[in-house]
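Thread title: Can someone regenerate the structure for this chain?

I was given the following input by a collaborator and told the matching structure tokens would be attached. They weren't. Posting the sequence so someone can regenerate them.
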Amino acid sequence: MNEAVPITANIDGPVAIVSGGGTLPFATADAAMQRGRRAVLLALRGSADPLRVADYPHHWIAVGQIGRMCRLARQEGCRDMVFIGGLVRPTLGQLRFDFETLRLLPRLARIFRGGDGHFFHGIVNIFEERGFNVLGAHEVAPRILMPEGALGRHRPGSVDLADIKRGLEFLRATAPFDVGQAVVIAQNRILGVEAAEGTDHMLARFADVRRSGRIRVPAGTGVLVKAPKQGQDRRIDLPSIGPKTIESAINAGLSGIAVVAGSALVAEPERIAEMADRANLFVAGVRDETAQR
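Best answer:
Regenerated them for you:
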């Protein structure tokens, strides 16, 4: 096993952005470049948007090509590395093995035996042992952190605030089980819990159940609450929202979305605010009072 190399962030040097799906990789790259850093996308095949990727310095990689990722990042002069964007967690059998990945296969098998927190922490360790400094996207691009308060005109009412509080309490209680980071709650009832499917699929499932009449709550009620897990490594897999989250929440008939301010990532906040305003939906960054008790 390679020995860990003690390093610090190179705030002026180029940064490699391992890019999955959605718009957050591009928001991170844009923000990094506006701060004077060169951003190179290591775009994951089957996840990253090819049309958007083409606008940036980039290389395409398959999931599991650890050796290739390291070689390309070093070739581009990148010591700092960010993992950002949507990715369906692969099975071992779906990985594209290169020689370095094959060497790590027994260790990867152990990493795969656990929840997402265990998985991502193991991946971070592998790259840090190879001399890279793995940063959170918010460390490279602070502006993509969710601010406190509403993004648009609408704000949560008293019923919504009570649901948000209960949702945060629920997520805090389930954090030790390393499951999802999101819950749907309405009128003090837990109606949807995110697991391996991700937020958008959880909301689609909730919408189907609501339309079928198996959940009877008035239209325009219910809140999507997202929060990081207690003790989570915040360099990777912070909860996030983007335009697709807004579409899913509208389709599910919710009143709004609440995420923990300063501990969640937000892509295209101006577009999100416009979409939410048109749909009479609130999108708010809130304090997690439950974490302070």
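The chain is about 35% helix and 20% strand.
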